[in-house]
Amino acid sequence: MRNSYHTTLKELIHYGLIPAQYIGEIPKANISRWKNDLNIQRHVGSEINDIADNHTELIKTLNQYPKMFYAYGRLVKTLSSIIASTDEFNATIRASKKEVVDAISRTCNIIPVYKAVKIFKISTTTFYTWVADVKLSCSNSAFQLCNKMYSSQITPMEVKAIKTALMDRKTLHWSIRSVHLNGLRNGYISVSENTMYRVNKALEIRKFREVVKKKKRHKQGVRATAPNQIWHADITTLKTLDNKRYYISLVMDNYSRRILSYAVSDKVSGLITKLIVPKF
């Protein structure tokens, strides 16, 4: 019975790529004819081999996508963990509430919300709260929150009263705490001190410069320029394990900080200090 051979096998033999297992099974005459065939493309269906080759490469590429996405996911997770360790991370994420909501909402058909929120280190509950805040924001509110959802927030009249109090020229040099206490005393402020600070920050009524704490410098005391110019007398209290109290009187040189003499007694007396003063 005469064998039929696949076109791909003929092409492999033509280009010298014949697999070893076929060498003994194919007649030498056929191998010679296919190798010397000057028009290998004349075989019907040869063009399909090119499509098959491209299809194979496409399949290989698609098979790499899950691994590639997983690798990118690991990189994003690592980057998120590093950034989350900084002090400003949470504040930055809260300040970018709208951007976070938009990003997760656009990708929720591909990445579930409960997985996406982990990148930003927030909970699912927090995300849906932010969704409501973004969609139901209110320009009439000092904190851009919907009055129907956050009914406990201060009213526009209270915000106006705070703004008027903080912008009063007579009290511009006062602290916000002082303005708040004065408002409570006179009855035109009814909110808490913390709320007053929040309104000031939200509306940027008073802008404060960052206060740099300077290191406290201790004044330099008396300093001698040579030994035995100045002496100091002092008494130190020592309490023992049996709850007894002893007093250590000592004389110290100002220049060298060396203890010149000392005495231990169960009472405080200037006579003891006088007796231990060195005599030269």
What is this structure, in a nutshell?
The chain has helices at 7-14, 28-35, 46-84, 89-95, 97-107, 113-119, 124-135, 156-166, 176-186, 193-203, 270-276, and strands spanning 231-239, 245-253, 259-265. The protein has 280 residues and is mostly helical.
Protein architecture, described:
Among the domains are: 7-44, no CATH class; 86-135; 156-203; 231-276, no CATH class. It contains 11 helices and 3 strands; from the N terminus they run H-H-H-H-H-H-H-H-H-H-E-E-E-H. It has helices at residues 7-14, 28-35, 46-84, 89-95, 97-107, 113-119, 124-135, 156-166, 176-186, 193-203, 270-276, and strands at 231-239, 245-253, 259-265. A 3-stranded antiparallel beta sheet has the order 1-2-3, covered by helices on one side. The N and C termini lie far apart (134 Å).
Radius of gyration from the CA trace? 44 Å
Q: What's the end-to-end separation, in Å?
A: 134 Å
Class inferred from helices and paired strands: mainly alpha
Order of helices and strands: HHHHHHHHHHEEEH
- What composes the largest sheet? 3 strands, antiparallel
Strand content: 5-15%
Strand order of the largest sheet: 1-2-3
Number of helices: 11
Q: Count every beta strand, where a strand is a DSSP E run of 2 or more residues.
A: 3
Shape, please?
elongated
Mean pLDDT: 77
Helix content range of the residues, please?
40-55%
Poorly predicted ranges: 146-152
